[in-house]
Amino acid sequence: MAKSQILVSEAKDALERFKMEAASEVGVNLKQGYNGDLTSRQAGSVGGQMVKKMIEKYENDLKAGK
Q1: Is residue 46 part of a domain?
Q2: Which of 55, 4, 50 is nearest to 23 (CA)?
Q3: pTM more than 0.85
Q4: Does 48 map to a domain?
Q5: What is the distance between the alpha carbons of residues 55 and 49, in angstroms, rounded to a whole number?
Q6: Considering the domain boundaries, does residue 32 fall inside one?
Q7: Which has the least CB within 10 A, 3, 24, 49, 66?
Q8: Can you give the pLDDT of all 66 residues of the chain as single tens digits?
C-alpha cells in the first residue's frame, strides 16, 4: 500500500496537530511517532473525526460565502 504524501510540506505540523486534536475528541490516546498498537476501530474513529471536521468547515465556509 502506498503511503500518503503531504503535498504542501508546510502543512505537515498543522496536520499532525489536527490529528492529535481529533484523537483527543474521540478518546484515543495517540503518541508522537509510531501508533501501530491502535486497533482498527481506534484508528478509524480518528480518521472519521478528521473527515467530519473537514466537512463541517467546508460547509461553514460555503454558508459564509468563502
Answers
A1: yes
A2: 50
A3: no
A4: yes
A5: 10
A6: no
A7: 3
A8: 456 777 888 888 899 999 999 999 999 999 988 999 999 999 999 999 999 999 999 999 999 987
Domain that holds residue 41: 14-24+37-66
Query: Is residue 63, in this structure, part of any structural domain at all?
Result: yes
Q: Which three cell numbers stand for residue 27?
A: 478518546
Are 19 and 50 in contact, with CB atoms under 8 Å apart? yes
**Gap between the Cα atoms of 8 and 13, Å rounded:** 11
Reference 42, options 52, 30, 28, 53; nearest CA is 28
Residue carrying the nine cell digits 502506498: 2
Please state the domain count of the chain: 1
Coil, strand or helix at 23: helix
> Cβ neighbours of residue 19 under 8 Å, at least 6 residues apart?
30, 46, 50
